[in-house]
From TrEMBL:
Pfam family, one: Response_reg
UniProt keyword annotations, A-Z: Phosphoprotein
GO terms classed as biological process: phosphorelay signal transduction system
Modified residues (4-aspartylphosphate): D62
Native source species: Myxococcus fulvus
Response regulatory domain segment(s): 13-129
Stated name of the protein: Twitching motility two-component system response regulator PilG
Length: 135
């Protein structure tokens, strides 16, 4: 007897930590087409709690936010044994080399400047999550 078992692909979760709701919504629109599940947080402190609760496959975070900035969030994620391998992308309007170096020091997987290039964002996310190209 031949049994055909359908395998369901787990939906990949992306945590977007951004204090501007419009940017959160834009990022979600930019990343449509892969069936990603989105969770969002308005600052790093809330983002860290949500990361611990939802265990995302990718974290995309603004740098400049109230309560806990993106650098501190990235460092906290890297220090957490359950999250330390999670790909982490920092987005910022800061364009200085010191900020980029700080992002590397805290363990960011990628660092993109705002305004974000949709192609660059999609390319980085595709690489980090090992997603297929979309039409």
């Amino acid at each position: 007897m031949n049994v055909n078992v359908a395998t369901e692909r787990k939906s990949l979760k992306v945590l977007i930590v951004e204090d501007t709701k419009t940017i959160t919504n834009l990022l979600q629109v930019y990343l449509m087409g892969w069936g990603l599940e989105f969770v969002d947080a308005p600052n790093g402190a809330v983002g860290l709690n949500k990361a611990r609760e939802f265990k995302p496959d990718l974290i995309i975070s603004d740098v400049q936010m109230p309560e806990m900035d993106g650098f501190a969030l990235c460092a906290a994620v890297r220090a957490d044994s359950n999250l330390h391998d999670t790909p982490f992308m920092l987005l910022t309007s800061l364009k200085d080399d010191a900020s980029r170096k700080k992002g590397q020091l805290v363990g960011a997987s990628a660092f993109l400047n705002k305004p974000v290039s949709v192609d660059d964002l999609r390319s980085k996310v595709r690489d980090m999550l090992k997603l297929p190209a979309t039409k």
